[in-house]
Amino acid sequence: MSMSYTDPNTGETKRVPQGGTLPFNEVNFNCTGTRGLVGIFVRSLEVQHVLLALGVSALIEHALGTSLPLVLLDSSSPVRPVDRRTRLALVQEVLKAGGHKGLLQHLQTPRLPLDLKAFSGLTEQEKLVFHCKYGATASNLEAIFSKYAQRPAELLQLVSLGLRVSAESKNAPSAREIVRASAPLIVNASQSMRGGESLDDHPCASALEPTSPRCLSLVQNLVQKSLVEVKDICANVEESSEDILVALGAQIVLQEFCSGRTSARLENAIDELKAWLEMASSSCSIMGVFLMQSWLTTWSEDKESRLSAFLSGDAVSNRSSFLGGLKKLQHTRSGEPYVRQLYDLVNSLHSPCLRFRVLREVLGLSERFSRSVVHGIVCLAYDIFVAHPRSAFEVDEATRLEAEECTGGGRGRSEVLGVAAPHRFSSDPLGVESRRCRAQYREHRCRKS
Predict the structure, then answer these.
(1) Is the pLDDT assigned to residue 449 strictly greater than 80?
(2) The pTM is what?
(3) What pLDDT does residue 197 have?
(4) For the chain, what is the radius of gyration of the CA atoms?
(5) Which of 199, 254, 265, 379 registers the highest number of CB atoms within 10 A of its CB?
């Protein structure tokens, strides 16, 4: 039998001498559908190689509904499958690993999450910790948290644990998934107490009416206690870790809403804006002095504030519109309308100074949350509660966003809260540039090969 191949540089067909070998280590065949998929090859039993292969396996099963075995293919051993015991041992090695400076610092970015449903030897808490240190699929995380949907106290404790371990591991994608999976359950539990629905196994259910003041107070106390823990985690996060702050900030904003404290701050902010607008529309002599003093006060906090905006009436017009947005926000009572109105309000603020600080305070966020981080928080909250078309790559948010960036659509820029933002909606605007660089790198590699 003779062999020949096509030279990729010249297009010339060349014959392989007798006893020779093809100058390739890959042979490609044209297959239709999933019939040609028989397994996933692993280069070695090193942790990063096996985790990557397991992540590919989870993605293929999610997107195509095909479960594939892992096959070890190296230069020193016969081809053989990677058995369940070996895979479990590697997952347990990740669980024992230290923080971001340990075993996980060399792993691929972005990581592909694993489907842990086959690892029956792991407890729910071990699965959560693995997710925090590396990554589990969105469906895995939803399955863990849904078991505690009727037990808010335990759910909040689990969420705090997950956010703490994710922050310590500097694993922002996993922290975002924890917020994404738990926030609807927390909001629903809070609304059930207000709406008169009974929660089985909840301390309120046996002794109190769900809408009684004592029961509502208990739910709010649970949320407020959890808020203290989340803010404590924030205090230990580096200022440069904006991606982690987005996830933690989203949890704070949503729990502040559930606790009822956002409503009280909204009322105060509305009263103060009303008083300011009344003074700004008083007689001309008083108005001029008042607007000058207002600008000086604003300028002392934000050097980008322009005197011309106050003298031309733009400041009055902007704050009047902002007041209308806050009033609409005040009248929302459930998760989706709240984040919809919040998202619309934020996107109407192009270069805010005082308005940004007021909004940040209303949301329950401290000064360490910058404009870009607050924008990222609102986009994440919007994406959690507002339905969007499902993607074949939605094994988790990070994988979906990476795939979307490869399409190259929506490259325009706009301004929101005084910072540049992608023209097309993104649930993670802070990560757009990094994803774009990785997409361009992969495209360049494909062209070279």
Answers:
(1) no
(2) 0.83
(3) 43
(4) 27
(5) 254
Residue 368 has pLDDT above 50, yes or no: yes
Other CB atoms closer than 10 Å to residue 38's CB: what's the count? 11
User: Coil, helix or strand for 109?
Assistant: coil
Helix (H, G, I), strand (E, B) or coil at 445: helix
Return the top range by mean pLDDT from 70-74, 172-176, 223-227: 172-176
pLDDT category, 211, cuts 50, 70, 90? very low
CA 106 to centroid of chain Cα atoms: 22
Tokens coding 53: 């292969």
pLDDT number for residue 223: 84
Q: What is the pLDDT at residue 379?
A: 95
Return the axis-axis angle of helices 354-363 and 284-301, rounded to nearest 10°: 70
Helix H or strand E segment including 324: helix 314-330
Q: How far is Cα 397 from Cα 141, in angstroms, rounded to an integer?
A: 12
Cα separation, 113 vs 99, whole angstroms: 18
Give SS3 for 163: helix
Contact by Cβ (8 Å): 178, 159: yes
Q: Which amino acid, one-letter code, is at 46?
A: E
Q: DSSP assignment of 210-225, as one string? A: TTSHHHHHHHHHHHHH
User: Whole-angstrom distance between the N-terminal and C-terminal Cα of the chain?
Assistant: 29
Mapping DSSP onto H, E and C, the string for 182-202 reads: HHHHHHHHHHHHHHCCCCCCC
